[in-house]
Description:
Blueprint: H1 6-31, E1 35-36, E2 49-50, H2 85-112, H3 126-138, H4 153-175, H5 179-184, H6 186-190, H7 194-223, H8 225-234, H9 241-268, H10 270-291, H11 317-324, E3 332-336, E4 342-344, H12 346-351, E5 355-362, E6 368-377, H13 378-385, E7 393-401, H14 402-405, E8 413-419, H15 420-423, E9 428-434, E10 437-438, E11 448-451, E12 463-469, H16 482-487
Parallel strand pairs: 3-12
Antiparallel strand pairs: 1-2, 3-4, 5-6, 6-9, 7-8, 7-12, 9-10, 9-11
Helix pairs in contact: 1-2, 1-9, 2-10, 3-4, 4-7, 7-8, 8-9, 9-10
Amino acid sequence: MEAFPLWIVITHFLNILFMTLLGRSGIEVLSAFPKLYLSDHCPPGREAVRFSKRVFFAGSPKLWSSLDEEESWSPKIALPGRKNLGLGRHWHFMTLQFWILTGLVYVALLFIEGQWRRLVPTDWSIVPDALRAMATYLSGNLPQPQPGLPYNAAQQLAYFGVVFILAPLQILTGAAMSPSVIARFPWYARLFGGKQGARTIHFLVLCALIGFVIVHTAMVVIHGIPREWAGIALGSYHANHTLAVVVGTLGLLFILAVNVVATRVSLNHPRRVQRALGLVVDPFERVISRRFASRQHYARRDISPYFRVNGYPPPDAEFEDLAASGFVHYRLDVGGLVEEPISLTLAELRAMPQTSQITKHNCIQGWTNIAEWGGVPLAAITERCRPTADARYLVFYAFDDKTITENEGRYGYFYGTIPLDLALRPQTILALDMNGQPLPIEHGAPARLRVETQLGFKMVKWVRAIEFVADYHHIGQGQGGWREDQQYYANAAGI
Ligand SMILES: Nc1nc2c(c(=O)[nH]1)N[C@H]1C(S)=C(S)[C@@H](COP(=O)(O)O)O[C@H]1N2
Ligand SMILES: [Mo]
């Protein structure tokens, strides 16, 4: 009997390759916030699981920033390792697209070729049969394969679980972590117990998949490598066994080589990798990030007791003087490609139409918090200064010099850009208040951006000036923001 048709041999191989990249880059993402929560308030010190020795507390006397929580994990495990969340995400979202494509082709062919019975059990007797098969293994014998199939009931049930339960669950919980998706459809995250619930399930499914791979590999060894590899690498149990061992080994070496090269190149040429993977990742990010408008309306009782800080306040004397005098001398300069450049005091900003919203903040590292934000819709500011026809982006310049506040070989003043259409969305505001009080210094006083479909790093705090531009490639290192420049984050930030 033919064990596996060619399309199964190919999709199975691609699947191994993509799962190694997805798993390793997923671990990199986890290292940026190495803790799991069941609640979207993410109370510091009260995590469900923590993969880090260091504990941070809400009431700690010394201000800490969530980037301090990041861990550096080995490139042998994480892709690429050594605190590179930006490229970890690039690898994850690049591979994801090919993995889903492979999965769709596989499942489509399974049905088109009438082979779905290979995986989908049609009778409940599969459960006792699977139990019996496991008992047979435990007694030191090999169970009989299912009639007409190359594997037994326990294997069939496990394969069904992986393809039709674990893989879809991984995609669904992945989507429930996208700030764009859950800003537009807040009910969707609730299906999984919130974003943190989805994140925890996503991790548990990773563990289940790793467990599956271990047992699956052990089974291949127990059943006998040359014969099993003849089946899955050459498609037939009667194929030449020497050839099977050669092809199988070459296949595994290829997967290892791809992983080694991906890791090395990412560590040594991060900007090139950001750009190259960006060709596949950026369009995908943009579709998900910019299509939806936020429809979040949480209640006051949903507000988080403690809201994490990410990014230390500007340390210089000029800013401290401004703050000490209650920002009376503060001016927000709005210029660039506009018909009427303006300069607004805090009082003038407060005299403009105000709005407020209770929304969930999603830091790229993985934590969430809910707060109420009040301030001026960016649409109102845009309307006043009347951008010219060639203005396409808004650049937000901040007061904090990261050379001083976040120096891990990074430098320059913080800034960020958003496209004009995002600026005009109803829940895009220049916030002046947080939870009914003027913004605390650490959360961006006197004014900070809120773009409720995006990741936290897009929401520039301590805004000094806004510039309308046609293009951002001449600013900073040209990637559209300080974290994009210095940490290789993608510019569209909806997932
Ligand atoms: N000026 C400035 N804005 C910034 C940052 C920063 O370091 N400097 N960090 C960003 C990141 S990564 C996040 S998650 C949010 C955090 O906002 P919070 O400190 O109010 O929680 O601010 C964003 N805006
Ligand atoms: Mo962040």
